[in-house]
Amino acid sequence: MVSAQPRYASERAPVRIVFMGTPPLAARILEILLNSPKQQWSVVAVVTRPDQPRGRGLKMESSPVASLAAAHGLPVLKPVSVKTAEFLTTLKSFEPDLLIVAGFGRILPNEVLKAARIMPINVHTSLLPKFRGASPVEGALLAGETETGVTIMRVTERMDAGPILLQRKIPITGDDTQGSLKAKLAELGGTALLEALALLRCNQLSETPQDESLASYTAPIEKKHATIDWHHGAEQIERMVRAYDPWPVARTKLGDTELLIWRARPASGEQLQPEAEPGTLVRLRPRPVVKCGEGWLELLEVQAAGKRRMDAADFMRGRHVPQGVRLGA
Fold first, then answer.
1. Which of 146, 208, 215, 230 has an alpha carbon 20 to 30 Å from 44's alpha carbon atom?
2. Where are the alpha helices (DSSP H) in the chain?
3. Where are the domains of the chain?
4. Per residue in 168-199, pLDDT tens?
């Protein structure tokens, strides 16, 4: 069982929280926390990434977490590095009982973790020990998992390896994309975090070590990962389409045009060309079908770079694309 500090257990004062996160998923978790009963805990500061240039004008833009925190009048720290003495001194000045981390994107050194008087907690969007690392949602979709969830865990210096405090599961549907799944997990992560904090206040939050033999890891997603290799199976490519929606978006080449694939599904191979090379458009009507290394993929929604998303059949008709063209060639 987790033992609380004597001051915390006896005085029942609101738990002082410093929240650390960056993306929209983390902002939603923070919003749920801020909308919870204030007499039980208090967010005293937020740590996020520095502002970054965005858009064609490269205007400096705050992270979603920073924008939400500013709207609530919270102090916002945007350190270039979390390893400096200056940052550590500022962090300690808020006297945090808990550090709550969600999508922060950096490994926190032990000196930072020890700034939390009770413990540092992470909201991780997978069922640990599966899919540790930077892209657990994409990892679950690419692996064809049928369920995922959130893990509330105590943070250690090893990436996502700390003991589990609480887990909650949800199914992955056949229509789920990275975007839809992250939205669901943000809601689940917020409610699971509140549940864990309530158990902590009652000294009923137990720790379960992770089984290292079951651990798997995910790396940061880059744009180059989104290029389709048509030698892969249709099911694998369809998972890729969903895992990379809304970013970086699965893509291929149609001649000199980069073609983004937004929606697709495995298709029946009846009356198609089994001898066709992977990437070949073997049918155009009623919808375009592409030969894969194993199976066939039906294209539902595509987009040429710089153009709008549109129905794949309409796109092919509008471009007068002939049957037999190879994508990605």
1. 208
2. 6-11, 24-34, 64-71, 85-93, 110-113, 136-142, 178-201, 234-243, 312-319
3. 6-218, 224-319
4. 999 999 999 999 999 999 999 999 999 999 99
| Res. 316 pLDDT band, cuts 50 70 90 | very high
Structure tokens at 85: 């003495």
Q: What is the pLDDT of residues 115-156, one digit of tens each?
A: 999 999 999 999 999 999 999 999 999 999 999 999 999 999
What are the tokens at 297? 């993929």
- Nearest CA among 165, 176, 186 for reference residue 26: 186
Of 285, 276, 272, 263, nearest to 325 (Cα)? 276
CATH architecture of 224-319: Roll (3.10)
Provide φ and ψ at 148, rounded to 5°.
-150, -160
Domain 6-218 identical in fold to domain 224-319? no
**CATH for 6-218?**
3.40.50.170
Does residue 212 have a pLDDT over 80? yes
Q: Which residues contact 47 (CB under 8 A, 6 or more apart)?
A: 18, 19, 20, 76, 77, 78, 79, 82, 91, 104
Cis bond leading into 286, ω under 30°? yes
Helices H, strands E: what count in the chain? 9, 17
